[in-house]
């Protein structure tokens, strides 16, 4: 494993196949997904650093435990996000912590991605941007909020969201549309201009 | 401080975290598919009972009863089997949805495919084995609530004043007369003087028949036509049963 020089050129799915033969390769997968999944957990769950680490640890353990059941027809990232999604939902149900949502640079990225879709006035210099997005997203149902995050922050394709949430493609498209409408409606209701 | 990655790798190496074996995932998938196929097979059988009951509806009675089409359909619809069909189609869909790729199919598409498969397999078993009739007879015989649910449909044949009577032959035909116990277990003397006896009717003991005619007394009825209880023919006899009969 220490000699895995060309690991960077290998796909996630190839690393999964290698991990099944040699457990040391699992470190490569963890390295690739540690920051991505930590960010995803933080944005959805609104938990602090320690709790995020706990959930992330559970996710990596579950991924490893279920690695033999990984369907090679799926993208590994979709499968990993699905496990993360289930773990977050399960934790959220247990603790009922109110999500704190996006902030900082992520707010800009989120707004940039969603603005063109929503056809809303975009004022990237708006200083209250982060607070405004948080306020609007807080009013949106969890199922819509998550789908907006996956689409506009994680920049996942519809097919990937379908695999992550285990919902048909049409349902995902409907969810995204409804989520956009609800976001716009809430923003207008609260007289927030982006 | 130990990083998360190292912490997990150490747990893996110490055997604290183990991979679930592949056979567990394969077994789960196999059982889920088996469940879906089993529910689909039951849905198909229930569907054959629906087909049997729909085909068994005697539309020639509607003018005699002076009922509108809506009322006639409402009374004759096989609700028990329709509810069963919806239930088993739903169970098939739920099991299918839990297979590895089942979630990718929308309810409308998967539901329509399952319904079509049930209809096709139901139609096939209905024509090949008369499975619908077997189920109908079985439900009448062994499921007491079925008879209660089916009462409005049966009551249609419990109108001697309208010339409709159904029940079980108690005393077989002799001298153009036989005795019949109707659905409410009331005994009737039925006179068949030149009446039309449909194919398949033998008027032997315990045979269930439907009679169209005229009430001529408190417990007397003149038959114009005697029909088998079910319009559709009996299920085909298998050689084994024929041998048993011969013996």
Please describe what this structure looks like.
The complex is a heterodimer of chains A (194) and B (247). Chain A is built from 9 helices and no strands. Chain A is elongated and about 55 Å long. With 194 residues, chain A is mainly α. The termini of chain A are far apart. Chain A has 2 domains: 10-95, RNA polymerase sigma factor, region 2, helix turn helix motif (Rna Polymerase Sigma Factor, Chain: A, Orthogonal Bundle), CATH 1.10.1740; 104-189, Arc Repressor Mutant, subunit A. Chain B is α+β, with helices and mostly antiparallel strands and 247 residues long. In chain B, 53% of the residues lie in helices and 17% in strands. Chain B contains 10 helices and 7 strands. A 5-stranded mixed β-barrel of chain B has the order 2-3-4-7-6. In chain B, strand 2 and strand 3 (177-182) form a beta hairpin. In chain B, helix 2 runs antiparallel to helix 5 (79-97). The longest helix of chain B has 34 residues, at 22-55. Chain B is elongated and about 105 Å long. Chain A binds chain B through residues 20, 23-24, 26-27, 30-31, 34, 53, 56-57, 60-61, 64-69, 71, 73, 162, 166-171, and chain B through 4-5, 7-9, 11-13, 17-22, 24-25, 100-101, 103-107, 109.
Q: Helical content of chain B, roughly?
A: 40-55%
Overall tally of structural domains of chain A: 2
- The shape of chain B, in one word, is elongated
- Beta-sheet strand percentage of chain B? 15-25%
Number of helices of chain B: 10
CATH topology of the largest domain in chain A: Rna Polymerase Sigma Factor, Chain: A
Sketch the major β-sheet of chain B: 5 strands, mixed, barrel
Distance between the termini of chain A: 49 Å
Mean pLDDT of chain A: 82
For the secondary structure, the number of strands of chain B is: 7
Strand content of chain A: under 5%
Order of helices and strands of chain B: HHHHHHHHHEEEEEEEH
